[in-house]
Every structure is written in structure tokens, then in C-alpha cells.
Amino acid sequence: MTDKEFIEEIKLLGINPTQEQLSQLEEYYNLLIEWNNKMNLTRITEKKEVYLKHFYDSLTINKIINLNDYNTLCDIGTGAGFPGIVLKIFYPHLEITLVDAREKKLKFLDEVIKKLNLKNISTKHIRAEEYSEKFDIVTARAVANIQKLLDYTMHLVKKNGYLIALKGDIDSELVEEVQTQINKQYTIKNIIKFNLPVEGSKRSLILIKNK
Ligand code: SAH
Questions:
Q1: Closest C-alpha to ligand 1, atom 11
Q2: What integer pLDDT is reported at residue 159 of this predicted model?
Q3: How many structural domains is the chain composed of?
Q4: 72: which of 42, 99, 105, 135 fits an S-S bond (Cβ 3.0–4.6 Å)?
């Protein structure tokens, strides 16, 4: 998507970007491409594609929850910072922890945080299952199937908080796995499916509440 399409589409999500936020995003893109030459961060490198499949995609969380209502967020398996860094840029009030089991990618994220002058955001090199903080919101994009996500991350979600899984197409996985995983402790609050603008890839968001 072009810059113009990006702005139009995130406005439809309820986000009115400032010039500073758009500049931060552009700098993030430049750093991503620069560091991608040294380490494997993303196979998507064309600008229009990164803006659609990484940046816009990260912000679709707004379809399922209003992040203005929450304070702390942990992005599990953040990789090159999706959705964590993008959310920090557009929801600067959030206190964000970016977690990944791979240390190398976190070096890149430390540099992004420094260069974009982002505050109240830090990186943590740990496996989700060994981590023991609590957050209002835990996000995970393209990290594991729902069964594993529930096993690895629900202990990080505060009571009345949410796990949000950002996924591609989930048809078969959902019916067979998610339903059987739900127990008295947590519940599926919402599942939404939609297509990305411009080229129509299938996406799903799953919202799970820790009761
Ligand atoms: N969320 C990013 C990266 C997805 S790739 C994106 O959407 O582009 C999955 C990432 O999860 C990898 O960086 C991997 O190192 C990390 N990961 C997988 N299992 C993990 C675990 N149990 N704890 C922490 N990180 C994990």
C-alpha cells in the first residue's frame, strides 16, 4: 500500500496519525531494511509491502480492542518488532515489553528504540514460558498455534486482561484446537476474520480473556 493508502486505512481503524508518527514509521522501515542486510529480519522488503503486511497489519488489533483503555503490553515473539514497535509508535502511552527467545533480533530492536527515541519500552531476552511478569495485554503475531500460545503465555496475562493472537487463516485450527483448550480460567471473547486491504490476504484476530 502507498503512504496515502496507509494513512487512509489506519484512519478507518480509528487512528489519526501525526506527522511525527509517520516519520518514526519511515525511520523504522529504513532501519529494518538496513539491518536486514546483516541479519534475517523479514523476507518482505518492498516499501509498499512492509507498510501493508507489517505496519498496517500490526495496527489491525484496533479492530478487536481499544488499546487506549490499557497500560501495559507484552509482545511475545516480537521478532523484528511486530506488532510491538508499531503499537508503541501509535499508542505512545503504552508501557511495552518486547520479548523474544532470540537475542540477535533484540539488538536490532534496541537500536530502533534508541533511534526513534521511544520511551517506556524495553526488550527482554527470554522464552515466554520462563517469563513471570503480568500485563494487561499480551500480543503474539505469527508465533505459534493457539494451543501452544495458551500454554506459553496465559500466565503473563493479568486477571481480566487479554491475550491477542494475530494470525493468518485459522479455519481448521480454530474448530479443532481452540475450543478444546478453553477451560474455566480463560475464555474466547471474540474472533474476527477479515482481508487485508489492497491485496486481500486472509487475517484473523483472536481475543482471549483471563477470567
Ligand atoms: N511477531 C513477529 C515474529 C514472528 S516469528 C512477526 O509477526 O513478524 C516468531 C518469533 O517468535 C521468532 O522471533 C521466535 O524467536 C519467537 N519465539 C518463538 N517461540 C518463542 C517463545 N516460546 N518465547 C519467546 N519467543 C519465541
A1: 77
A2: 96
A3: 1
A4: 135
* Residue 100 beta carbon below 6 angstroms from any ligand 1 atom: yes
pLDDT average per 10 residues of sequence, the chain (211 residues) = 97 97 98 96 97 98 97 98 98 98 96 98 98 98 88 95 92 59 75 94 93 86
CATH of the domain at 8: 3.40.50.150
Q: Which residue range forms the structural domain that includes residue 164?
A: 3-209
DSSP code string of 22-67: HHHHHHHHHHHHHHHTTS---S--SHHHHIIIIIIHHHGGGGT--G
Supply 2's cell numbers: 502507498
Q: Residue with the nearest Cα to atom 8 of ligand 1? A: 82
Write down the pTM of the prediction.
Answer: 0.96
Query: How far, in Å, from the CA of 121 to the mean position of ligand 1?
Result: 18
**Predicted pLDDT of residue 172:** 53
